[in-house]
Fold this protein.
Amino acid sequence: MGLFSFPLLFCLFDWAQVSLSFPQSFDSDFTFTLPAGHKECFYQTMKKDATLEIEYQVIDGAGLDVDFYIASPNGNILFFDQRKSDGVHSVETENGDYMFCFDNSFSSISEKIVFFELILDNMEPEGDSDSWKDFLQGGELLDMKLEDILESINNVKGRLSKSNQIQGLLRAFEARDRNLQEGNYDRVNFWSVVNLSVMLIVSCLQVYLLKNLFNDKRRSRT
């Protein structure tokens, strides 16, 4: 068992399970390889009255399917998907660590490549978010409405986050389609070679049989 550190998350690898913990981030996406016969679990610390949304896709691997479930801090299973290629789930959270797992234990041969995106809403850091207003005096505000400015900034931030989310999903769709096309391309080439080989064998066999047939006729006349 090894321990690896990353800037945004840490990974704890075990023989049958991997557990990760994300920092307090509003939007995180991750792509990982899920070996055959293994399960990988991730943990996210949430607070009360927040929203946890997760969207996942299996972008490569035989069958393009995986088992998925989300568990609450007290261990209750909130959602369970059996052998699905993608899914979207949203949870209204409480204080505690939420666990979501991807299970490929039903497959003994094929590994899967899984992409998922984690979106956290209402996860403002603790403390008074409006404390910066205490440093401003009324005369400096003039006729500007800080609430309107703050609302506009939040709208722009939300739209940028949504655009980033959509771009990540499009990249996942593109990777999945590319893997499917490459797999189909390899299968077409393989069976084309097989068919060509069979045609050549049958053609050689027909020529051989015809040649023997004429040789037998010539011998019977003499």
